[in-house]
Amino acid sequence: MAAPITPQMRAALRHLRRADPRFAALMRTHGAPPLRRTRNSFRALAQSIISQQLSVKAAAVIYRRVCRLFTGSRFPSPQHMLQMPHVRLRAAGLSNNKAAFLHELARAFQSGRVKPRTLNQMADTEIAAQLVQLRGIGQWTVDMYLLFDLCRPNVLPVGDLGVRKGMQRWFGLRQLPEPERMRKLAAPWQPYCSAAAWYMWRVLQST
User: Fold this and answer.
1) What are the CB-based long-range contacts (under 8 Å, 24+) for 171-178?
2) Given 3-state DSSP classes, what are the helix, strand and coil percentages for the chain, each rounded to the nearest 5?
3) Dist CA 183 CA 94 (whole Å)
4) Please, which pLDDT band fits residue 1 given cuts at 50, 70 and 90?
5) Rounded to two decimals, what is the model's pTM?
6) Which stretch of 1-10, 84-93, 100-109, 147-156 has the lowest confidence by average pLDDT?
7) 5: helix, coil or strand?
8) In the chain, what percentage of residues exceed pLDDT 90?
9) 24 pLDDT above the threshold of 50
10) Distance CA 90, CA 111 (A)
11) How far, in Å, CA of 156 to CA of 190, rounded?
């Protein structure tokens, strides 16, 4: 059963239909974006690190392997992640760098350098400025965290290949759009670029 649509999402859907009536067909086919806040920032950021430069399917396989390293096959706390030897994370399918990045992320949460409650109260740009200081976290990872885990309404992940391809097809472009052009094309979607970005991924499934 689908979760109820929030008032903010209803406003986003109305806005996008007005900005471009073609969104109505996507909404009928795919429904509303299932963007719901999570309660585990460490897991969300770690999962984004695991997913970097991988297909959705491959990332899911490695994520499950990492979970199986821990009691109950659940994703660990920062403390338990730090206790897991680097070599065992590598054996689960993580690259050398990603295993190191997960340990660094866990240290940042464990030490209080990154505080989830503080992140929730910060602006998008402030969150990005803090998180990109950690190895393994770039703007793409920040965008995924803002969009899927904090459910911020106006995130346009210009570095995501799927969104770029979706916008190329949506606007009938000959080449993949660069970030500056993506922002200009997406101007009518503001302040609800997050929902629009989700539909750009769906565009690739619809055509």
Assistant:
1) none
2) 65, 0, 35
3) 33
4) very low
5) 0.87
6) 1-10
7) coil
8) 83
9) yes
10) 24
11) 9
Look at residue 20 and give its three-state secondary structure: coil
Contact of 50 with 138, CB cutoff 8 Å: no
- Domains of the chain, each with CATH number or no CATH: 7-35+155-206 (1.10.1670.40), 41-149 (1.10.340.30)
Q: Give how far Cα 145 sits from Cα of 38, 45, 175, 183, 205, Å.
A: 10, 6, 28, 19, 23
The residue to which tokens 């190329």 are assigned: 168
Q: How far apart are CA 159 and CA 178, in angstroms?
A: 9
Is 204:166 a contact under the CB 8 Å cutoff? yes
Please report, as a single letter, which amino acid is at residue 95: S
For every residue of 14-56, DSSP letters joined together read HHHHHH-TTHHHHHHHH-S------S-HHHHHHHHHHHTTS-H
More confident residue, 13 or 38: 13
- Quick one: pLDDT band at residue 2, thresholds 50, 70, 90? low
Task: Summarize pLDDT for 125-138 with one digit per residue, the tens.
Answer: 999 999 999 999 99
Hey, what are 88's tokens? 């065992």
